[in-house]
Amino acid sequence: MEITTREQDGITIIDISGRLDASNSKEAENIILAAEGEESKVILNLENLEYISSAGLRVLLLSAKKARSGHGKICIVSLTENVKDVFEISGFSAIFEIADNLEEGIKMVLLAC
Amino acid sequence: MIKHQAILENLHLFLEYAIQFAKDSGINDVNLSRIELAIEETIVNIINYSSTKNTTEIEMNCELRNSAVIIEVADNGTPFNPLEKEDPDISIPIEDREIGGLGIFLIKNIMDDVHYKRTDDHNILTLEKNI
Questions:
Q1: In the list A18, B24, B25, B27, which could disulfide-bond A1, CB 3.0-4.6 Å?
Q2: Minimal-distance CA residue of chain B relative to A22
Q3: Residue A12: CB partners within 8 Å, gap ≥ 6?
Q4: Domains within chain B, CATH numbers bracketed
């Protein structure tokens, strides 16, 4: 797993790649929650995320809860087939704002604020 | 058959063993990913709920029966039937959604059959995926 953070158009973009599972979810939680500021606009880019388990879903949920509680805005973009499958089974597809690509995600986050 | 101590550091050993068996059985990529996920959730649950001391071990057996991959996961930890856990409500919004509880729910939904038994002081969870 690799996580990188960048700023673009006032949005914090967090790229998560590789595998997000029980062996690294605590580390991911620390990095992602630290990158989210108060009232921030956040995009989680999962374009290169090959695998996610419930430990990883938990991190995404914590991240979304933090964004919502601080009146921020969060959007997830670019799900791979594997991750999309897990999102659908777990109901995450219905409760998260999800965009097909980064460009759409940026529009979604900016429009909503 | 493989047997290792129930610690997170050994998770990859169980994953590799089950994935190799499933691959050799000719399972497709979608089902292979689902088996990988189910095995991680099963092992992590044992580590979190059944394993109380460093003598807890997990034994995994794989077999092909009637065009299905059968994976049996046994541990000598405290009695714990994961299938008795109530399913999370997956329709409620993010703010109200509980953290956790998804692992068992995923296992039940991605496998074709899952059953639990307690035999000879062991928890035995059997996962089945049709090829």
A1: A18
A2: B44
A3: A5, A6, A35, A36, A37, A40, A41, A42, A43
A4: 2-130 (3.30.565.10)
